[in-house]
Amino acid sequence: MAANDYIIVAPNRRGLPGFGVEWNEAISGDYGGQCMKDYFTAIDEMAKEAFVDKDHLGCVGASFGGFSVYWLAGHHDKRFKAFIAHDGIFNMEMQYLETEEKWFANWDMGGAYWEKDNATAQRTFANSPHRFVDKWDTPILCIHGEKDYRILANQAMAAFDAAKMRGIPAELLIYPDENHWVLKPQNGVLWQRVFFEWLDKWLKE
Fold first, then answer.
1. Is residue 128 flagged as an active site residue?
2. Selected catalytic residue, list 30, 38, 108, 148
3. Is the pTM of this model over 0.90?
4. Which member of 28, 63, 75, 200 is catalytic?
5. Above 90 in pLDDT, residue 26?
């Protein structure tokens, strides 16, 4: 991204190991909470720098970062001019039932969405990105692999449809032969091409 003339802001938000186990685990049961505030703090501080064009900020992410993009799309208050989500969760209730790895879903989401007396689970699912589509207002590119069984490709398809139905510019890139990562060389070339074409279209003069 730096080679394509972009300044990269990569916050060491909650849920990453940079500040120890407690910091890393603070994300579990709080998907739409403190870690999202970490993103906003980072981008707002960087936007104050003279070398940053605060009117042309983009937001990209994969896996939890993809979830973050979908969530931020409904909460960013016009900070960003373009989004890219790769293999992210859009509808947390569906993902909870679809994923092939149930221990992680229960640990990170705090339980099942039908556990009405489970405050952690209820808070988690109340912050599902699909619940905030009414506030979407920014172009978004959704990328996913159909062999991703941790987060199924219909998550990206649903997010793309939601954006289109809201009249928001959107593109969808689906790989029938990739999983949670893009591993095949030609697919990687296409990924890079589509990724930067999207950013350039919305962020460069």
1. no
2. 148
3. yes
4. 63
5. no
How many angstroms separate the CA atoms of 57 and 17, rounded?
26
**Is 63 designated active site?**
yes
Active-site position among 56, 137, 161, 180: 180
H or E element, residue 84: strand 82-86
Domain ranges of the chain: 51-203
State how far the Cα of 170 lies from the Cα of 124, in Å rounded to an integer. 26
Q: pLDDT digits over 55-66, tens only? A: 999 999 999 999
Helix (H, G, I), strand (E, B) or coil at 88: coil
Tokens at residue 113, please? 């969405």
Active site annotation includes 180: yes
CATH number listed for the domain at residues 51-203: 3.40.50.1820
Positive or negative, the CA dihedral 35, 25, 112, 117 is: negative
